[in-house]
Every structure is written in C-alpha cells, then in structure tokens.
Amino acid sequence: MKSVKQRFYFLIGLLLFSLAFSVESEARLFDINTETFAAYFRLNYAPSTLKKTTYEKSSPFGETYSGDISAIYGGEFGFVYSTRYLNVRFGLEVVRPPTLAVTASNSAGTKLYDLSSEITAVIPKIGIEYNIRQWHETRLFLNGNYGLGNLGMNNSYTFTSTGTAAPMSGADYTEEGRGTAALTEGCIGLETLMFDTTTLVFDVGYRQLNFTSLTQNRSATTLNGAVAKGDTMLNTDGSKRSVNMTGTYAGLAFRFWIK
Fold first, then answer.
1. Residue 213 is part of which domain span?
2. Residues 115-147 pLDDT 10s
3. 99: domain CATH number?
4. 241, 58 in Cβ contact below 8 A?
5. Is the CA virtual torsion 50, 181, 99, 106 positive or negative?
C-alpha cells in the first residue's frame, strides 16, 4: 500500500510541474491533431450497486439499517501520449463511495448500534484511446482501460446498551478487509478545447470491478464470531464477503497539453 501512495504523490507532483511549465510557456496555436503529451485530472460518478452488501450479511440478528451506499465517486491523475489515431493513457485512480454512517435497529425499532463504513480502491491503470474523428479543436474517441484495484474496507461498530445485552451481547469493534481485483472498462468520450492548451473531456462507459474475496486485516470479535488477521472475510451464511463496483459511469476530465 505504501508503494501505491508513493506513486500517487509522484503523479500529483509531476502534474503540478507540468501545469507550471505549460503556464510559463509561450502561447501557441492549438491543434488537437498535432498535440502529443498531456497531464490530466479526472473526476467520475457511478450509481452504486453496493447498497447494503458490504455489511448487511455480517450479522445473524436480522437488523434493519437506516441507509445504504447509493453512489460511487472517483478521482484520477495521469498522463496521455497522443498520436493521430491512437492515444495511450497512464493513470492512478482512487474510487470510493462517501463514508456511510447508519444505525441498526431490531424488529421493535430499538437502536442497537451505529455503523460507519469506509471503502476505498486504489487502481493503477493503463488505457488505449482510438480517435474515431478529429477536428481542429475537438475529437471523438473510444477508450479501453485495464488496471489492478487494491481495496481497503473498514466497518466500525459502536453499540448501545440494548446492543450490548443478550442475545446480541455486542462490544465495540472494527473489521478491516483487504482485497485485489482486475479492472476492465470501456467508454466513449468527447474532448474539446476549453482555453489556451487546456481541453475538457466528457466520457460515459461501463466498468468491471468486482472484489470477490476479502481478507481480514485485523483480529476482532465480531457479530459473526471471532476472526483472525489473514482469515477470509465471510458473511453469516458462510459465503465470501464481496465488494462489487461494476456498472456504468460518467466522467469529466481536464487535459493540460504540454507539447
């Protein structure tokens, strides 16, 4: 994880250097057909299919939860090398839903505990863009990406007096899960000049990112029983806990063309 963070900070530093260099460079006539190298920053949004799947089956007591995960956001830094028909993209993306804070209640509506859930995937990735059509300041392209996602998930439980009583008899704890999964995604995008040598990119697509098996990253006594670091993270029914971020997405990016 440390090496991924180091690459992330390196990309940020290189992006800032590229921006400073492009600002100080002399003004030039922009032609998207002849530009060859750019740094970029990208944001994306996806409706979530996760809902309650990351925590709902971690307890055998059938609690009712006050909310679920409804959206997934992402941020990406990287670089683009461009030719007339093909572009190569190198990036590092961080994908995560907003931190979720929900309450769990029993069938009588009595609060049992507070649950805070945080999920983050860090994904080094490489992509190929095929330029379908190019004009002087605009182009339409198809994009395919491949990467390796590194997931961290923390679910923290804080019990009320009712939750610490039998039959639940819970005690505050945090379960940590870690996992890896391949990322594949494809999209269609439109890039157009915004100002000077900065372009704006819109894209919509579909990604496959399913963490089918997680590993416990700490020992704890959970509602599902005692677990040890290194164990496979399981649901109450014995199935593997999973985090599935597969689905459609939309992105907005800024590219800073250097040459």
1. 2-257
2. 999 999 999 999 999 999 999 999 999 999 999
3. 2.40.160.20
4. yes
5. positive
